[in-house]
Design goal:
7-stranded mixed beta sheet; 618 residues; Rossmann fold; single chain; alpha/beta; Serine Threonine Protein Phosphatase 5, Tetratricopeptide repeat
Length: 618
């Protein structure tokens, strides 16, 4: 192992230390089963969550995990997701198999190398976790200072605490809603925050499709209506401005979010007027859900201060009262109605992404031998989003089975069109032109079955750019956005079409909005946005984006080339050469002449070529 003196460096970092409570007792009861369960938790929950929030697992310590984060906000979000995930995983287990983490977080100076982190910060984090009850999170004052105004979480001041082997008392805070410090075991009741949530299992944002693609818009739910798996009610937002004359803004935002969610035809949205009678009534989530016939509840508040407005939004599961997601939006008030519309679209897109991920997780719990068309489609989408040759092949096989099971299932036709197009443009096909043609036919068939299928219009838009049918591509991307301005598929398709037709600023705007709504978009949108950044001379932004995408999708063959170009423009020649070498290993047949051939304007290809030549691409 490399020591501190070899390759070590100092930097500020947030350290997360998680330890399994009562591990020795569990081991005494059943050593083999306990080890198997812990390994599953680490592989299926902890490692993906840490990666999703841009941290790294430094090491596992028997029954504990040490992770490092560059951002205190991301570290706390990760901790919340870990506790939520453990509560969910424990729900189906007998009491003698349930494992619960105690988590401590501290921000400070550390000494790091590729293998380990050292210093007092690590020791403090490990000692803070001892203050936490099973299922709880305790953080230091330095972490609290960084996150208190950035996350919609409540913290409880524990005062100054004396920690073992730490020579000074440390002020500590517990995350409210977690188990009390020093109290017995109780279930964690707050689920993960996610701005643009990363998928735990599928490594991709997933769309919540209903059986046979039946369209369901807003509906008025009777008090006796059963809760469907996709039903959601937007409760009236509260005005916290202290000025009753501003109630109209909170009410208008509620109505706009309800309307925007209703565009996701795979969701059943309780009508705005059906929620009005419940204004001001404080009912437990489970009772409110039963009253409105909604599985999920959206609530929020609006605070207007001078020329700014702050909107806070939460998503809760009415079945158990668990908070699943929360986000905060701060906007400058120029045109009040424009702000209302913009916030509503962003809230709807983020909510839909989270609800769609829940759909996948529910589907994955079902036995593989008992899958209907809907669940098989969800699993196929997860495989497709892996962005690997094998995953794409299995996704297409599954989707072909779905189309045989349900020939009139428009969503299945659209998903198969997407996977077929993916096969062509990711370099996994010997007959790429034929695959693009097939993708077009499948998308057109989906639209014949359901004219308002957003994914089908989005696939057509991207496929038409490959065929250099630019007017058709623009028309299809516009149609997809008209159907649902909050849909990430529509936004990423629009970003792609605008890139290849030459509207670089418009492409960046659409791509960045898609990323904000769903941080888990696939590698192709990341590639397109990275190329747009290169053409806009935003080389540092290109590096940040493409580095993260390459880590998330290591098998995707094309990301390395624009990344190499961005490195070269920044004078980072060694990294440029390394990225180019990786790209050539993944796709040895790609050359400069074949890169970026979709551009309508040859001048844009020449500009991109000039950047890639600096990295040595020929």
């Amino acid at each position: 192992m490399t020591g501190i003196g070899s390759g070590g460096n100092r930097r500020l970092a947030t350290i997360l230390f998680a330890d399994v409570a009562g591990y020795s007792r569990l081991m005494r009861a059943d050593e083999e089963r306990t080890l198997t369960d812990l390994r599953a938790h680490l592989a299926e929950l902890v490692a993906p969550a840490v990666e999703r929030f841009h941290g790294r697992i430094v090491k596992s310590l028997g029954d504990g995990v040490l992770a490092e984060f560059g951002s205190a906000v991301e570290a706390v979000r990760c901790a919340v997701e870990l506790q939520s995930g453990m509560a969910e995983r424990n729900a189906g287990l007998p009491a003698d198999r349930r494992q619960s983490f105690r988590i401590g977080l501290h921000l400070g100076d550390v000494i790091t190398n590729d293998y380990d982190v050292f210093g007092d910060t690590v020791n403090v984090a490990s000692r803070l976790q001892t203050l936490a009850a099973p299922g709880a999170i305790v953080l230091s004052a330095s972490v609290h200072e960084q996150v208190r105004d950035k996350l919609t979480l409540t913290f409880r001041d524990l005062g100054a605490r004396t920690l073992k082997n730490i020579d000074r008392p440390m002020r500590a805070y517990a995350l409210a809603g977690s188990a009390s410090v020093g109290a017995g075991r109780r279930r964690w009741v707050m689920a993960a925050l996610a701005g643009a949530v990363f998928a735990l299992v599928a490594a991709g944002g997933l769309f919540f499709y209903l059986h046979r693609g039946d369209a369901v818009g807003s509906k008025t739910a009777a008090s006796t209506a059963p809760m469907s798996a996709s039903s959601v009610a937007v409760l009236l937002f509260t005005n916290q401005s202290g000025d009753v004359s501003q109630d109209y803004f909170a009410d208008g935002l509620t109505e706009d979010i309800t309307r925007a969610l209703g565009r996701f035809r795979q969701l059943t949205v309780v009508a705005y007027r059906a929620v009005l009678p419940w204004r001001g009534k404080e009912l437990p989530p489970m009772e409110m859900g039963r009253a409105l016939g909604a599985r999920f509840l959206v609530s929020g508040s609006v605070r207007r201060i001078d020329d700014r407005v702050r909107v806070t939004v939460q998503l809760a599961d009415a079945n158990n009262g668990t908070q699943l997601w929360a986000e905060q939006y701060d906007e400058r008030l120029t045109d009040i109605f424009e702000v209302q519309d913009r916030v509503a679209r962003r809230v709807a897109g983020s909510l839909a992404s989270n609800l769609q991920q829940i759909a996948l997780q529910q589907s994955l719990r079902k036995p593989t031998g008992n899958l209907d068309a809907y669940d098989l489609l969800l699993r196929a989408r997860a495989l497709s989003n892996e962005a690997t040759r094998a995953g794409n092949r299995m996704a297409r096989e599954a989707l072909e089975k779905v189309t045989r099971m349900s020939p009139n299932y428009a969503d299945a036709q659209a998903e198969l069109a997407e996977a077929t197009f993916q096969r062509a443009v990711y370099g996994w096909s010997e007959f790429a032109d034929q695959d693009v043609d097939s993708a077009v036919r499948l998308a057109q068939k989906a639209i014949e079955l359901d004219e308002e299928n957003v994914l089908a219009h989005s696939v057509l838009a991207r496929a038409y750019t490959v065929q250099q049918r630019y007017d058709l591509a623009l028309a299809e991307s516009e149609r997809a956005l008209q159907l649902n301005p909050s849909d990430t598929e529509a936004l990423t398709a629009r970003a792609a079409v605008l890139l290849w037709t030459g509207d670089i600023d418009g492409s960046i705007a659409a791509g960045e909005l898609a990323m904000r709504l769903n941080g888990n978009v696939g590698p192709e949108p990341a590639l397109n946005l990275g190329i747009a950044y290169l053409l806009d001379k935003r080389f540092a932004d290109a590096v940040k984006l493409l580095e993260a995408a390459r880590v998330r999708y290591p098998a995707y063959p094309i990301l390395d080339f624009p990344l190499a170009g961005a490195y070269a423009e920044l004078g980072r020649d060694a990294e440029a050469a390394e990225a180019l070498d990786q790209g050539k290993r993944k796709d040895p047949y790609l050359d400069l002449a074949g890169f970026g051939t979709r551009f309508k304007d040859p001048a844009l290809k020449r500009r991109l070529d000039a950047t890639l030549r600096k990295a040595g691409f020929k």
